[in-house]
Design goal:
By secondary structure, the protein is of the alpha/beta class. The protein is built from 18 helices and 19 strands. The structure holds flavin-adenine dinucleotide (FAD).
């Protein structure tokens, strides 16, 4: 390896990129992380600071079925991790419903007639389920009945995705709310809490406690970046990758990054680990991938997201971590209450900070609305949903998050398969990791696992582990206690899988 070259050039300083860099650095491999953001590491899991208040992009629960991931979180930021109770509700037609739904509470708040209709619709779904449900609507209707689907799933899901539930793949429902049905919710409501038998069957949606760094998820990733630097690795901020060229003669990659000044810098490496969105990456790879892979990458879609952070006088109106806003009368989709995630998210206990989450597409009306107007909208809507009086809002800040969600439409899986197969065939030293890096609806732990396995592959000099299998066994993550794994493997993937078996 030439002296000016790195073992790996890592694109993106989010959980996946930093995990790969940390794991490689610990083994003495020289690495550089190129992060486009000038200030923050952590990607979607960063924590934005404003006047001493800390804003989480979404609200990040630290929970994993993987001992390795839980262990890594402890290794990086153990003393700063809090154990937090989870509390969340749904706001619908001026009522608050406990979430995960408590069937008896939900039915009593819906009223007798609506409850009877919901139960009849659930029974109809049980008797005549939609065979092989392909869409989110079909999948949820099978589990809850059409009527409950319309009340508790349709509006929020359509706010999140900006498309009809009949266009959203059932994969998303299966991954997000796997194992949850009206039947399992009733069972959960009836069985005493903490019973080991029940705990084993707990589904992700029902997790009641989680860990959280005391100053938000960004604290984990800032500490990780610091540790990488201490180990000799480089974490370069404000470096947007705009080109990736592979030279088959030297077997080396040249990665071009644009700095804030507009200058271009070049980084050479034996391997490239990319957590940037596949669509952007594939467009800049040289030599070009075959046309079907280019076309597939252009077809991938994303959903974007903005948070309006409000600083309010704390009147103790609510203590939930977050509230889903199913009501179609407001644009806001979810409200976070950061002080409930950790008291240290606010610098002064007289105030609370809320995050009103609006789902949008980059460039659409909401995305391009001026910050001042968005703050006014949030002030109106927080009052409309009865969580604070507009007059109690003392300040606000807008945080935009492009590509928050990789879209799971009918064709995404086929596109992703086409791309990764082309990369495996033509560019074995290019490794895709993470959420948008693999176009997978990965949480931090899965994003990290793909990076941990990739680091092992790089150190081994061969693709011993199949990173694409991580999510296929997501079930392990979705159904059980933190740190528990159902097999002898510390990973939620088979060890040393043949790469073509995914
Ligand atoms: C609303 C919401 C709530 C969530 N809640 C949870 C939760 O409760 N628990 C949980 O574990 N996970 C949660 N997640 C998921 C979590 O945010 C992601 O799994 C995680 O951040 C993915 O890490 P990553 O490194 O793959 O990608 P990212 O976090 O997207 O990081 C990628 C990084 O690459 C950088 N980048 C992109 N393009 C370039 C380029 N061209 N050049 C250089 N750098 C580039 C970006 O700036 C970014 O820093 C949530 C996500 C959302 C949207």
């Amino acid at each position: 390896m030439p002296t000016d070259a790195f073992k790996a050039v890592i694109i993106g300083g989010g959980p996946a990129g930093l995990t790969a860099a940390y794991e490689l650095s610990k083994q003495g491999a020289p690495v550089v992380v190129l992060e486009s953001d000038p200030d923050y590491v952590g990607g979607i899991s960063r924590t934005v600071k404003y006047k001493g208040f800390h804003f989480d992009i979404g609200g990040h629960r630290f929970f994993s079925k993987s001992r390795e991931v839980e262990g890594l979180w402890t290794e990086i930021a153990g003393p700063d991790m809090l154990d937090r109770p989870r509390s969340s509700r749904i706001y619908y037609r001026s009522q608050f419903y406990t979430y995960p739904l408590k069937p008896f509470e939900a039915l009593s708040k819906l009223g007798l007639t609506e409850s009877v209709l919901c139960m009849l619709s659930f029974m109809a779904a049980r008797l005549r389920p939609i065979p092989e449900p392909k869409t989110f609507e079909d999948w949820v209707s099978n589990q809850f009945g059409k009527r409950l689907f319309r009340i508790f799933f349709k509006t929020y899901t359509e706010k999140v995705w900006g498309m009809s539930c009949s266009e959203i793949s059932a994969d998303w429902a299966a991954q997000r709310i796997k194992g949850l049905s009206l039947g399992s919710a009733i069972k959960h409501a009836l069985l005493p809490k903490g019973e080991p038998k029940d705990r084993k069957q707990v589904v992700k949606t029902l997790i009641e406690t989680f860990r959280y760094p005391r100053r938000g998820p960004g604290m984990m990733w800032e500490t990780c970046a610091e540790k990488i630097r201490q180990l000799g690795g480089k974490v370069m901020m404000g470096r947007k990758v705009v080109g990736c060229r592979f030279d088959p003669v030297s077997n080396m990659w040249s990665v071009t990054a644009r700095c804030a000044s507009g200058n271009l810098e070049e980084y050479r490496g034996e391997h490239v680990v990319s957590s940037m969105p596949i669509r952007d990456l594939v467009a800049q790879i040289e030599p070009r991938l075959p046309d079907p892979a280019l076309q597939a990458a252009r077809s991938l879609r994303y959903r974007d997201f903005l948070t309006v952070g409000l600083i309010v006088n704390d009147r103790g109106r609510f203590t939930d971590n977050w509230i889903y806003i199913h009501d179609p009368g407001v644009k806001v989709g979810r409200v976070q209450n950061y002080k409930s995630w950790s008291p240290e998210m606010v610098p002064d206990a007289r105030f609370s900070s809320y995050g009103l989450e609006y789902f949008c597409f980059e460039g659409d009306g909401l995305w391009t609305t001026a910050d001042r107007e968005l703050i006014e909208l949030a002030k109106r809507e927080i009052q409309q949903v009865n969580l604070a009086a507009s007059a109690d809002v003392v300040d606000g800040v807008v945080i935009r998050q492009p590509k928050a969600y990789p879209v799971y439409d009918d064709a995404y899986q086929q596109h992703v398969d086409t791309i990764w197969k082309a990369i495996e065939q033509y560019l074995p030293a290019l490794h895709l990791v993470g959420r948008n890096g693999m176009h997978k609806y990965n949480n931090q732990d899965h994003a990290m696992m793909t990076a941990m396995l990739t680091a092992k592959n790089i150190l081994a000099g061969e693709r011993k582990y199949n990173v694409w299998a991580v999510n296929q066994d997501a079930e392990y993550h979705e159904a059980g206690a933190a740190g528990e794994v159902p097999t002898a493997s510390p990973f939620t993937v088979p060890t040393e899988t043949a790469i073509n078996s995914a």
